Amino acid sequence: MSRIKTTFANLKEQGRKALIPFITAGDPKPDATLEYMHALVEAGADIIELGVPFSDPMADGPVIQKACERALLHGTRLIDVLGMVADFRKTNDTTPVVLMGYLNPVEALGYENFVNEAAKAGLDGVLVVDLPPEEATEFSALLAAQQLDSIFLLSPTTTLERAKKICAATTGYLYYVSIKGVTGSATLDVDAVAEKLNLFAGITDLPLAVGFGIRDGATAAALGAISDGVIVGSALVGKVAELADQPEKIAPAMSQVLNEMRQALDKLPG
Amino acid sequence: MSKYADLLNLPDAQGHFGPYGGRFVSETLSHALEQLEEQYTRLSADPAFQAEFDKDLAQYVGRPSPLYHAERWSNHLGGAQIWLKREDLNHTGAHKVNNTVGQALLAKYSGKQRIIAETGAGQHGVATATVAARLGLKCQVYMGAEDVKRQAPNVYRMKLLGAEVISVESGSKTLKDAMNEAMRDWVTNVDDTFYIIGTVAGPHPYPLLVRNFNAVAGREAREQALQQIGRLPDALIACIGGGSNALGLFHPFITDDEVEMYGIEAGGEGIESGRHAAPLNAGRPGVLHGNRTYLMEDDAGQITPTHSISAGLDYPGVGPEHANLKDVGRVKYELATDAEVMEAFADLCKYEGIIPALESSHALAFAKRLAPTLGKDKHLIVNLSGRGDKDIMTVAKMQGITL
């Protein structure tokens, strides 16, 4: 069984929700990422999403745009990010790692080359923000051949008919984008999210994780209560800019944010 | 039968031009694009919609635009006859308005009350602000901070027309960053906002509908050539940023195999300098802004900065249909450097009494190179896609003059 499947199966057995932190790889410098990944696991992460820096992150708000710029300042390439995953695997063989990013760096490396290197590095899944299932047939087949999961997005504007196609193309888990907007946006309507999630839960057995707009324990618990897990990005990545002049405090600050969410999620009734 | 007949069937149902085009967007926009495609398919087959579009083009834009024989310049160059398709005479001074009038009608029929756009040189922004004012719709235009500086007259024009210009400070602060920001806005406000993309790029169906709205120029030019020259021209020449004025001129001639076509990219300071905006000449295929096309990028797939004397061509991608037309060999894509552009700009002022846009001057620069190599019985049509009033500050600066 894949690491992602095992993780969700164990969580279900324990009556717990998945906590999925996102950080941008190479931000603020390449050697910081490995430390953050281990710290996040320590603070309660079930799965780690690593953002691949891109020059034109169209779906991201200012916090993650800046993170991409910082990472690119040091020339962090997709192949380097896979190197970070391989380093992480040297001491952690259980926590799934998912890459999240944009298609062009993957195309530049080449689909086959990427998939082979990703499998060697010990990666578990890939979410390409600007690659909808209609355009993903070839890439998803290559990922599947190496037992790597293809994770796709669902959104508030996704119709039921479209969601069926997306669910059929997805393995691992589904990522529900809680709001119309970019990452790091503020307003969250929990009832509206619940309504959509109910609709989608009726057509798939895959775990549904929710991201965008989760800032603290309270928002994590509110969305955790109606899903299989929550994804938190900007609230963590924001710490890198906030603590730019005290970089040694970044990992502890991220851990604190995540730990508060872990505790809030674990208080939810199983 | 034309060996290019198959090109008329593109894009396919998924928005592909051969391996290019498509719809590479985050999920939130998929539904809006499906709706737009459905709406466009329905309305473009509706005679009432077409009649309304034609009426706007005639009475508001001022079409048809003339096909003008630049006789004195042709004589000076001593070769082929150069004809100018005078898109600079359209309302707002460029071809861009053909498309914004069309998309504004789509916006009107969709019932959305807010319009957004991205702009480089500001011509598309002005053309969008213009149609928004006419329809009483709220309008916000994203423009790179660099472009806001170098195109100040157009920024003010947009403001006079009631639009809000949002200066984009991210990335390279030019057109590509304006487009990123417009996409972010659209994703956030997709329910009540219509995004008027200004060129034949972006996710399907934009490359299709922008081409079709601009093709009025090519249809007119084809008829005008038959009347005024007495036959089809030997070649068409147009500048390429995203490539909307070029496709507008080229597309109605696609299956006229004897008509050669040249798309002219911004050579900047020369390909070897690295300071240019010529993805078809010096880039490679990749995915950006919703479509697969030729891009300027580094080995790791990061988009690289571009340079052009003209803000309107300062873009690292190009419409996906051009990418396909390059691969199949229907259109030849050439370059004009900043220096050649300045010479052609000066020529047109001097010999024809026309101040051309710096974008269009790329096409003129290639005509200036090509015409002397051909006989006087050959005929070239150059798309004079915009007028140059907006560029006089840039040109003065190049000449070391302070206005």
TrEMBL record, chain A:
Cross-referenced Gene3D superfamilies: Aldolase class I
Q: What class of enzyme is it?
A: lyase
Q: Please give one Pfam family short name.
A: Trp_syntA
Alphabetically ordered keywords of this record: Amino-acid biosynthesis, Aromatic amino acid biosynthesis, Lyase, Tryptophan biosynthesis
Q: In which pathway does it act?
A: Amino-acid biosynthesis; L-tryptophan biosynthesis; L-tryptophan from chorismate: step 5/5
Q: Does the keyword rRNA processing apply?
A: no
Q: Which CDD domains match?
A: Tryptophan_synthase_alpha
The record lists the catalysed reaction(s) as:
(1S,2R)-1-C-(indol-3-yl)glycerol 3-phosphate + L-serine = D-glyceraldehyde 3-phosphate + L-tryptophan + H2O
**What Enzyme Commission number does this protein have?**
4.2.1.20
Active-site residues are: 49 (proton acceptor), 60 (proton acceptor)
Similarity-based family: Belongs to the TrpA family.
Outline the subunit composition: Tetramer of two alpha and two beta chains.
**Stored PANTHER family:** TRYPTOPHAN SYNTHASE ALPHA CHAIN, CHLOROPLASTIC, TRYPTOPHAN SYNTHASE, ALPHA CHAIN
Provide the function of this protein. The alpha subunit is responsible for the aldol cleavage of indoleglycerol phosphate to indole and glyceraldehyde 3-phosphate.
Q: Which HAMAP family does the record cross-reference, listed alphabetically?
A: Trp_synth_alpha
Protein name per the record: Tryptophan synthase alpha chain
Protein's organism: Marinospirillum insulare
Its ancestry begins with: Bacteria, Pseudomonadati, Pseudomonadota, Gammaproteobacteria, Oceanospirillales
Q: Which gene encodes it?
A: trpA
UniProtKB/TrEMBL annotation, chain B:
Record protein name field: Tryptophan synthase beta chain
HAMAP family in the cross-refs: Trp_synth_beta
Function text: The beta subunit is responsible for the synthesis of L-tryptophan from indole and L-serine.
Q: Which residues carry this modification: N6-(pyridoxal phosphate)lysine?
A: 96
CDD domains in UniProt: Trp-synth_B
Please give the cofactor(s) recorded in the UniProt entry for this protein.
Answer: pyridoxal 5'-phosphate
Task: List the keywords (alphabetical).
Answer: Amino-acid biosynthesis, Aromatic amino acid biosynthesis, Lyase, Pyridoxal phosphate, Tryptophan biosynthesis
What organism is this sequence from?
A: Marinospirillum insulare
Assembly and binders: Tetramer of two alpha and two beta chains.
What InterPro entries is this protein classified in?
Answer: Trp_synth_b_CS, Trp_synth_beta, Trp_synth_beta/beta-like, TrpB-like_PALP, TrpB-like_PALP_sf
The gene from which this protein is expressed is trpB
Identify the metabolic or biological route this protein is part of: Amino-acid biosynthesis; L-tryptophan biosynthesis; L-tryptophan from chorismate: step 5/5
